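User: Last request for today: this protein with zinc ion, please.
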Amino acid sequence: MDKKIIVSPSILSADFAKLGEEIKSVKNVGAKWIHLDVMDGHFVPNITIGVPVVKSIRKITDLVLDTHLMIENPEKYIEAFAYAGSDILTFHYEACKDQNQIKEIIAQIKTLGKKAGISIKPKTEPEKIFPYIDSVDLVLVMTVEPGFGGQEFMHECAQKIPIIKQNAPNDLIIQVDGGINNLTSKICTSLGATSLVAGSYIYKSNDYKKSIESLIL
Ligand code: DX5
Ligand code: ZN
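Assistant: Here's the final one, the structure of the complex with zinc ion:
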């Protein structure tokens, strides 16, 4: 098992009626992070969870709360998610109007003592995030259009990984999200991804341990 690869199970495909249990189940089989998909029905055509749910999750787990904000005006909500207990706050490049705003959001996240991530949708060129690559902790390369779990992996998006890696500091976490399974995970890690988000592949399986391990073995 490659210890350097961080798997972040996405609760989007979990059973929300027993969310606490679903989170504990992946922790029990070795997960260190849990991926929380926040959607606002504006930035993406779907609505999921918000601050109160993150706050409740914080109370029942010490896993790293890897929070993926698929929302407009992320600057308005970052403080609330930080206080709710998120450890990583990843916002979307496309949700911001200009460079200044992006720099301010990153600074805001850091001031709150959290790790900052920036994410790009499939149509966004990787070069767009170069100005921020030294000030973020994580870059999230979407390998599907954000909004829904269970979509098919977009191979062309994975080609952004080496471009980012070549221009990034060594400790930058390069995360992929969307359509990750035991095969697409290997494509991404061989190109330089160091964190794998997987929702349906883990939570729709009948063996969480086996599915998590198969992403990295
Ligand atoms: C989609 C979300 C993902 C989603 C991935 O917009 O950002 O985190 O849960 O789901 P799968 O792994 O099923 O593609
Ligand atoms: Zn996500």
